[in-house]
Each structure stands twice: as structure tokens, then as C-alpha cells.
């Protein structure tokens, strides 16, 4: 053994330092490098330009439920790949890849918990799971969330994030639009509120159905909200659309939504709305 090898062997083991990738987050809008800790403490919102980054169900639940305590609702079992669809990949393979990367069964996750001491059922669509696309599983999860809210005599709050219907399920995905509408009729009949929080992006068949049927419509700042894309609309009407078209602030100005709320203020705002809409629901001791 050479002297260099002996010296190297004698050096005590030191833990591997954190890399720059673990310490910094680059804002997707302004490009500013922000300490990951600062970014996370600011609800995954850029402290420089207020850009609201996309987040998944777990972070939503932890940010909104009292003391970050919640119970996940089991994902409904549905028939997968009913059309045996295949493009460049089989649909079943796409589902396996999405589940391995995401850890969830599908794009909509529900949980029970309390906001400001009052029971709620909260659903979150995850854009990271196949673009949050609406298929049979999403429709079934939506119905399950609504019925859990009815059983708990609690509001149903939904955070939307989707590119639209899931093309691999064809007409079956579009059938979730009336299916979810009927479920909301059950919620209304029970006298319980449905609150929607539109996040970036909410588009396509989701916008054309349950995303715009809330008793109260909230949105996060800068969220893209619409049915067809801006380019498609411009080519159809042969006109240039105004600046900020289909963004949350534009929709608020034109009466499509009720308010735009920053992520850090969402819990307080939702708690206030629940107290107005469910005045008989007492806070838990």
C-alpha cells in the first residue's frame, strides 16, 4: 500500500455535503435562486415575484389542515384501461410509470380533517399525475369525496389542477362531467357547500364541469384557467387576445371567479368561508 493510500485510509469518514440542488430552488417565473428552506416556509411561493409553484396533495393537506393532521380516503377501485388503449405506449404502462413516480393511485386524492376546528373533506388534483387528467378514477374519487362530505355533514373543498379529460379513456372520461355534476346535486340537496380553489393550470373538460360549479370560486394568483388554449382561440376568432387572458386576475375582473387568494392566506380564508356557509357546524373541542 502506498503512503497516499495509507493517509487516505486514515482520514475519518465525513458525511456527504448537501449539493447545490438540495440547497437552492430556481423560480420558474423570474429565475431567482431561492434557498429551498425559505421557499418551503413560504408555501412553495417565490418570495421575490410571488410565483405560485405547483404542489401535490400531501403538501396541500399539511398546509391546510389543523396541526397538519388528516386521514386519507381510500382510492376507489375502478376498471383500468377499459378501451385497451395504446399509442406510443400502452395505457397500463403509462399508469404504472405515473404511480411509480408519484406514489398515488390516480390524479385526485381526498382527505378528512379540520380547518379552524371545523370538519371538512378536501380533494386535491395533482397535475404531476398524467397532467391531472380526468378519467374514470378521478370521477370515482370526486363522487367518493362528495359522499364522504355528506356523511360527515361537512363542506367539500376541491383544489383543481388539470389539463382536461384523459384521452386514453375516450368517451368514458367525458362521462365524468355529468357524473360529477349529479354528485354535486346530492351535496346541494344535503345543504352542504362546495368550495373550489382553481390552481395552475385548470383547463379542458375539468373547467367545463366541476371546476366552475362551486358555491364559492377561489383561485391562486396567476393560475391559468380556461377551456381551450389561447392559441386555439386566437386562430378561431382571428383576433389577438388581451394581456393576461385566462389568468386568475383577468377572470376575477370579468366576474368568472369570486376572489384570488395567495397560498399563505388560503387556510384563514377557507376557515372564514366555512364559518359563513356552515354556521351550525361547531368547532371541535
Can you characterise this structure?
Strands 3-4-5-6-7-8-9 form a seven-stranded mixed beta sheet, sandwiched between helices. The chain has a two-stranded antiparallel sheet with strand order 1-2. It folds into two domains: 13-53, no CATH class; 55-277, 2-enoyl-CoA Hydratase, Chain A, domain 1. It is 36% helix and 16% strand. It is an alpha/beta fold and 285 residues long. 34% of the residues are buried.
What are its keywords?
globular; 16% strand; 12 helices; alpha/beta; 285 residues; 2-enoyl-CoA Hydratase, Chain A, domain 1; single chain; 2 domains; 7-stranded mixed sheet
Blueprint of the fold:
Blueprint: H1 3-10, H2 20-23, E1 24-26, E2 33-35, H3 36-41, H4 57-64, E3 70-72, H5 91-102, E4 108-115, E5 118-125, H6 136-152, E6 156-162, H7 170-174, H8 176-189, E7 194-202, H9 204-207, E8 216-219, H10 230-237, H11 248-253, E9 259-260, H12 266-277
Helix pairs in contact: 6-8
Question: Helical amount among residues, as a percent range?
Answer: 25-40%
Q: Give the overall pLDDT as a whole number.
A: 92
Shape: globular
Largest sheet: 7 strands, mixed
Please name the fourth-level CATH homologous superfamily of the largest domain: 2-enoyl-CoA Hydratase, Chain A, domain 1
Q: Count every beta strand, where a strand is a DSSP E run of 2 or more residues.
A: 9
Low-confidence spans: none
| Discrete helix count | 12
- Give the N-terminus to C-terminus distance in angstroms: 70 Å
Order of helix and strand elements from N to C terminus: HHEEHHEHEEHEHHEHEHHEH
